[in-house]
Amino acid sequence: MRRISLDKATAGMVVGRTIHSLDGVLLLSEGVVLTAEHLLKLNQNRIQELFVEDGLTKGLVVEESVRHEVLVQAKTHVKQIMSLPSLKAGIDGRRVTELVERLLEQILASGDILHHLADIRSIDDYTFSHSVNVSIYSMIVGIGMGIKNEALRELGTGALLHDIGKLLVDDAILQKPGGLTPDEFEQVKKHADYGHELMRRVKGVSPSAADIASGHHERIDGSGYPKGLSGNAIPLSARIVAVADVYDALTSDRVYRQKEEPGKALDYIAAKAGTHFDRAVTDVFVRHMAHFPVGTAVVLHSGEKGLVARQNLSHPHRPVVRVVIDNEGRLLKQHHEVDLSASGENRIAAIWEI
């Protein structure tokens, strides 16, 4: 199984994983052979990516650290929570807490916390999907940093609602395809304070969770907003969400730019450690996220081409690769695997556009 952009999908391909809309409606089931009508339906529902099965990827398993149905439910609930009618009526803190608890149960049950959540950006509704993604990433980092129990749940809750203040910012500014004017950027920056005030009013949401909304755009060197806090003056939970927020933004398609590959996004975050991001948080994040998710098509320095088959926990940037094309461009009748952690010279040189 491998993950592809919808614009790369063609009639005749086999769906590798069931696809739902953001409202939880079943669009296509696993095993369905794609038709032109199916592709149109997916496009109309703003599906960006999907998993497909083919001869090259037969037997490759993309593990789910959070079950697909739980992700669909989470995104659907967040869409309901983060709507203007809900804001006017008051956010149900109990519902938010239950949602975070269910996501956390899934993460804790998945064992190893080396994850690339390859299926959580499949629906192009950035506000709602982004909130769920950031909550999951933040809790994974929290676990890696030894955060437990109620503090971990507060982290997940604050991360889930970290951008809620954007609902009070003009959507035309948030969706503007070009650069923002200084005045427009000042309007966007207000979402941090808006979010803090909104979360303080939610019964059952702790002050520390609310602080994430106001603190996730602060920077270690003091160059962030809204208060220009620096170093340890920024709550640890906000420092964690800052990294998760930027990673998910970089690896998601936006109206003003295309997404980055996970490895490039991680390289960017690592380069900003100690200035924009907390170094300890960054180290844990980079260590627990796969640079090349299972199913990623890659070109090796040897000239061979293949697909990532498994991760190496101690070397997340050097996975095991299933080689399917030799260095002369010939399709192999029998593939073989190369463990890049055991190969000093051979490594991934580029992403392969199949």
Q: What order do the helices and strands come in, and which of them pair?
A:
Layout: E1 2-5, E2 14-15, E3 19-20, E4 26-28, H1 36-44, E5 49-53, H2 68-81, H3 84-89, H4 93-109, H5 126-144, H6 149-160, H7 171-174, H8 182-189, H9 191-200, H10 207-215, H11 236-250, H12 262-271, H13 279-287, E6 297-300, E7 305-310, E8 320-325, E9 331-339, E10 348-351
Antiparallel strand pairs: 1-5, 2-5, 3-4, 6-7, 6-10, 7-8, 8-9
Helix pairs in contact: 2-4, 2-5, 4-5, 4-6, 5-6, 5-11, 6-10, 9-10, 10-11, 11-12, 12-13
Summarize the model shown.
With 354 residues, the chain is an alpha+beta fold. The chain has helices at residues 36-44, 68-81, 84-89, 93-109, 126-144, 149-160, 171-174, 182-189, 191-200, 207-215, 236-250, 262-271, 279-287; strands at residues 2-5, 14-15, 19-20, 26-28, 49-53, 297-300, 305-310, 320-325, 331-339, 348-351.
